[in-house]
């Protein structure tokens, strides 16, 4: 199949841009470095969990019967871990276990594997006696264990008193009567939305600046003027955006794939070392195939839109020192979209979130936040994507004219009057 000349020229430009970028030492070094950082970040939750596990204070308890086992564990948990229960996501500082080997538990206390051992015995008059074995009798745990002993005794008496009551049932609420929650907890969905928004922001800024730097580099060496004799400005612009964008996505995959692999393996490693509670399984709760597909589409369209604007702006200057100045408006728009989306994650139902999610500059950010945290109708997503596609077509047309006109401004200061005059004289 023979490709149209315009497509063939654009692909040739894209191939050149891609190979020049990926073969550079800076690209290889930064890709390897960022991949290592991504892997480290991927295992960070497991390492933190492991450190938390190592920092847990372990207490063992031994009682004469199973009923007292239950009362002792619940009372100790209430006294020792009560303040930590205010934050349900935090790990309790004390781990309480039941033992049927008091001699072995005493040896573990001596070796420092256990902070203490609480021995509960029942006397002839059915009274409870407590002995706390520890290496630090005057420590804070000894005082807390005295409070726990009072709680265990009170719980035992209350448990016996229930026999005098005709009946007292605790009924669990019927989950069918409530609205089914969205997949994933609120916290995990917020984390997920934030991660997706950050990915879009970093991509639009970093790889947009790549496109801008590439344009100025060619203009500085006057390569642009030679290439314009063989390809149209639109073909060059499209090829440059596709080529540099493909190089950026190649680096992106080299970073994300190993990090994602570590996240997948992290659960198995944590389960083997820490047990079934090693890592919260809902870290990426809410990630569905639909959301992933929407993210990829918005991700690519958002990059294309911003890259075209970066290329058009960069074609107006002839020095690398001026790139940041002309790219500042696009950077500010990207920052505005990022901050608006960050605010929206805390109040997704605010009145301004939905309207701004259709604005091309902001839709890649706000629509992702709405998809992860709110309810978005299918037609809303389709409309946002359609507006982005139309905006990209318009941006390509405008950027191609500015891009071609930029050659005429070589060595001149890009004032608004000169830009308009150059665009008007281009055919």
Keywords:
427 residues, mainly alpha, single chain, four-stranded mixed β-sheet, elongated, 2 domains, D-Maltodextrin-Binding Protein, domain 2
Secondary structure layout plus pairing:
Elements: H1 5-22, H2 25-54, E1 57-62, H3 66-81, E2 94-98, H4 102-111, E3 116-122, E4 128-134, H5 140-161, H6 186-220, H7 223-228, H8 233-274, H9 289-314, H10 323-344, H11 353-356, H12 363-373, H13 378-408, H14 416-425
Parallel strand pairs: 1-2, 1-3
Antiparallel strand pairs: 3-4
Helix pairs in contact: 1-8, 2-8, 3-5, 6-8, 6-9, 6-10, 6-12, 8-9, 8-13, 9-10, 9-12, 9-13, 10-12, 13-14
Structure, explained:
With 427 residues, this protein is mostly helical. The protein folds into two domains: 5-45 and 183-425, no CATH class; 55-163, D-Maltodextrin-Binding Protein, domain 2. 66% of the residues lie in helices and 6% in strands. It has helices at residues 5-22, 25-54, 66-81, 102-111, 140-161, 186-220, 223-228, 233-274, 289-314, 323-344, 353-356, 363-373, 378-408, 416-425, and strands at 57-62, 94-98, 116-122, 128-134. Strands 2-1-3-4 form a four-stranded mixed beta sheet, sandwiched between helices. The protein is elongated, with a radius of gyration of 32 Å. It starts with a helix and ends with a helix. Mean pLDDT is 74; it is low at 163-175, 177-185 and 276-285.
Question: For the largest beta sheet, what order do the strands appear in spatially?
Answer: 2-1-3-4
Give the uncertain stretches in residue-range form. Answer: 163-175, 177-185, 276-285
Radius of gyration: 32 Å
User: What's the helix-strand series?
Assistant: HHEHEHEEHHHHHHHHHH
CA(first)-CA(last) distance = 31 Å
């Amino acid at each position: 199949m023979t490709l149209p000349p315009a497509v063939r020229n654009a692909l040739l430009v894209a191939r050149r841009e891609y190979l020049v970028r990926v073969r550079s030492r800076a690209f290889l070094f930064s890709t390897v470095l960022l991949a290592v950082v991504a892997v480290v970040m991927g295992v960070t939750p497991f390492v933190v969990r492991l450190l938390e596990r190592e920092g847990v204070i372990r207490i063992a308890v031994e009682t004469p019967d199973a009923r007292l086992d239950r009362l002792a564990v619940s009372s100790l948990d209430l006294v020792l871990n009560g303040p930590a229960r205010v934050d349900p996501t935090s790990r309790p500082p004390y781990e309480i276990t039941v033992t049927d080997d008091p001699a072995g538990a005493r040896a573990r206390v001596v070796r420092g594997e256990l902070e203490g051992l609480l021995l509960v015995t029942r006397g002839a008059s059915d009274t409870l006696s407590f002995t706390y074995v520890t290496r630090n009798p005057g420590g804070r745990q000894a005082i807390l264990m005295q409070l726990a002993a009072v709680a265990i005794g009170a719980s035992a008496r209350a448990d016996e008193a229930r026999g005098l009551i005709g009946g007292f049932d605790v009924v669990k609420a019927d989950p069918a009567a409530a609205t089914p929650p969205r997949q994933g907890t609120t916290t995990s969905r917020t984390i997920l939305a934030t991660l997706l928004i950050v990915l879009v922001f970093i991509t639009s800024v970093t790889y947009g600046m790549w496109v801008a730097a590439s344009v100025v580099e060619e203009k500085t060496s006057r390569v642009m003027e030679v290439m314009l004799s063989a390809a149209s400005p639109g073909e060059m612009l499209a090829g440059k955006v596709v080529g540099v964008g493909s190089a950026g996505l190649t680096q992106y995959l080299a970073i994300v794939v190993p990090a994602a692999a570590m996240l997948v393996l992290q659960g198995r490693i944590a389960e083997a070392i820490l047990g079934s509670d090693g890592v919260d399984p809902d870290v990426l709760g809410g990630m569905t195939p639909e959301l992933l597909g929407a993210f990829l589409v918005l991700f690519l369209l958002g990059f294309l839109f911003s890259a075209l604007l970066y290329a058009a702006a960069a074609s107006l200057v002839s020095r690398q020192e001026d790139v940041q100045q002309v790219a500042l408006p696009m950077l500010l728009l990207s920052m505005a979209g990022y901050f608006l989306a960050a605010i929206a994650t805390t109040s997704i139902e605010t009145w301004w979130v939905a309207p701004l999610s259709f604005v091309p500059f902001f839709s890649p950010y706000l629509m992702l936040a709405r998809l992860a945290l709110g309810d978005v109708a299918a037609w809303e997503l389709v409309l946002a994507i359609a507006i982005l596609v139309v905006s990209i077509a318009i941006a390509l047309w405008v950027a191609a004219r500015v891009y071609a006109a930029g050659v005429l401004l070589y060595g001149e200061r890009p004032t608004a009057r000169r830009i308009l005059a150059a665009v008007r004289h281009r055919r």
